[in-house]
Amino acid sequence: MTMSEAPLLQVEGLTVHFPIRKGVLQRQVGTVRAVDGIDFTLKRGETLSLVGESGCGKSTTGLALMGLVKATGGTVTFAGERIAGLRGAALRSFRRRVQIVFQDPFSSLNPRQRVRDIIRAPLDIHGVGTPKERRKRVAQLMERVGLRPDQADNFPHQFSGGQRQRIGIARALALEPEIIICDEPVSALDVSVQAQILNLLADLQRDLGVSYLFISHDLGVVEHISRRVAVMYLGKIVEIADRDALFASPTHPYTELLMKSAPSLDPRQRRIFSASSDFVPSATRKPAGCPFHPRCPLATEKCTTVDPALTSRDDGRLVACHHR
């Protein structure tokens, strides 16, 4: 594999567990296995979507990659360097090159700061440019995301939801990152505004070559923006495939469940998934073996004891299933 083909981000066995503590002595009585050993890669200039039900560990994965949540295991390699070993200037460089856009465009912005100060904050923290250059950069970023520079003195509450998310995107672009983690960036917006933000993200990727890890539970949004899709269930990735292949023919039973559960106006697309049980396991008490087996119509005794590995298939997709 040449350097141009090597993944920009490589995740191997990433694990994030949270202890459950009770009592005066705060003794640990359990563990929330939010992310339970996942592997994936992200190439330069591509969009990999991480999709799954609420609570499956998608957002925790994004926060762990940023270092906002401490990983309990696994390795994350960015541009050939392990993140866990970065210190000092190398760590500051990594934080400049990987940015995040949060889900709620209101709570992620400081309501007491003017927009120019919000967008300029990354430049101030990393000491990029002179004060005059920073002011010019803020105006350029606002224009780039579809906002007027003369709105720079306004506060977040003076903007609509879609405009606030544009402010968040401008802030993420300030340091010219190579990867932007988009954590449900359009889920709090109206459908028409969602399309505008998705088109903006696509334009930025085309012009700047930025890579996206796009976290979402909305299959329509994922189908629109993705190049590849990783399906996550109870802290595990169960399938990774090219977007067109995944939506045309889902392989893992859980991916099939997601597709058949999506609302559709076309009666021909309204299919019923015959789950063997409505029981949804918890991240605190995961079943042995395959985590999906209590709901899977294909489950056998092997599924209850052996957790299938994510393995490559002849068509290039990765699937974690004993029967597919």
Q: CATH topology, which one? A: Rossmann fold
Low-confidence segments, ≥5 residues, pLDDT <50? 272-276
- Please, what is the CATH homologous superfamily? P-loop containing nucleotide triphosphate hydrolases
Compute the number of strand runs: 12
Give me the Rg, rounded.
Answer: 21 Å
Helix content: 25-40%
Counting H and I runs of at least 4 residues, what is the number of helices? 9
Mean pLDDT across every amino acid position = 90
Strand line-up of the largest beta sheet: 6-7-8-3-9-10-12-11
Q: What is the class in the CATH system?
A: Alpha Beta
Based on helices, strands and strand pairing, what is the structural class?
alpha/beta
Question: Secondary-structure element sequence?
Answer: EEEHEEHEHHHEHEHEEHHEE
Shape: globular
Name the CATH architecture. Answer: 3-Layer(aba) Sandwich
N-to-C terminal Cα separation, in Å?
Answer: 29 Å
How many distinct domains?
1
Query: In percent terms, what proportion of residues is strand?
Result: 15-25%
Biggest sheet, in brief? 8 strands, mixed
Walkthrough of the structure:
By secondary structure, this protein is α/β, with parallel strands linked by helices. It has a single domain (9-319), classed as Rossmann fold (3-Layer(aba) Sandwich). The protein is 30% helix and 23% strand. The chain is built from nine helices and twelve strands. It has an eight-stranded mixed β-sheet, sandwiched between helices. A four-stranded antiparallel β-sheet has the order 2-1-4-5. Strand 4 (73-78) and strand 5 form a beta hairpin. The radius of gyration is 21 Å and the shape is globular. The two termini are 29 Å apart.
